[in-house]
Amino acid sequence: MRELLAKLTGIPSACGHEYDVIRYLRDRLMDKADAWEIDGLGNLIVRKDGGQPGPVLMMSAHSDEVGFIVKKIENNGLIRFEKIGGNDDRILPIEKVIVCTQNGPIKGLIGYLSAHMRKFDKADLIRPYSQLYIDIGAEDKADAEAMGVEIGDAIVWGTQYEEFGSSRAMGHAFDDKVGCAIQAKLIEELDWSKVKGTVYFVFSVQEEVGLRGARTASHNVVADVALSIDTTAASDTFESMMDQMVCLGKGPGIKAMDFSFISSVAVRRKLQQVAKANNIPYQLEVFTGIGTDAGELHMAHKGVPTGSVSVPSRNAHTALEVIDLQDMEYAKDLLGAFILALEDKDEFKFVK
Which option is the CATH number for 67-157: 2.40.30.40, 3.40.50.360, 3.30.1490.480, 2.40.240.10? Predict the structure, then answer.
């Protein structure tokens, strides 16, 4: 699965510009699907039918990544930009980026003051992104335009996928190419003759700007139960707010609550039951600093019992996120076991 993750993170997909990764996933999965469609917003929805009747499960992982967009090309060729999604101004300077132009990708970096200028500056100043710029090596505005840069072009981090330590990986867009890789592998590897029911896998768009793709997709499918698959912020480092509740290498998180939804107790307990039965480590998660596609899935139609599985990540929404690859494998195992354990939609009723 790590090869697929490396491939997916290498395909730029800033919010609203997910076409290349959606195209790649469509081409990879279309022959393995019982049906598929790309809706008007850009969500790829892949249907897999089980060998026996049963409930309808909807799963969603978002294909977009936080990024930027070209706002203005200055006369000297430097680029002003706007943020797309939740980027932190404190970590922007001196990071590599890719500007996605109609002529292809262009390398650049977010510029900043030389250390030699520090004594003339306010030492504790954090410059807002509106005062920063991207340097693509252009001599002037005409040169930048000749390279193909236009207002509205998407910009993503320019870092590469790398593995380090015994089972760790660093790179950008793990949020949520991890979930996309898991879903793709489930479609490809699960023994669907043993599945009871139907599963709709959604590779959603524009999650990072308000769960927009999940909203559209959730009203296209009438589901009996739903799951989102995403990353979550690990709390296992030394900052003062860290509580050591979600750690790398300790298995996927099973959410009880985040700011976008409160998990169905029946779905959460089913995930826990499946994890225990299959000796899959997991961590229970309550974290109000994050939201997922589950925030829209659970409110579709007349309401859908919904849960969420997450892969812990350090440095989320930066150019170098960090995950433990074993957590990703455990998440895939848990979700596969959950699909195989489905039997009756009534087990997820609010009141039985």
Answer: 2.40.30.40
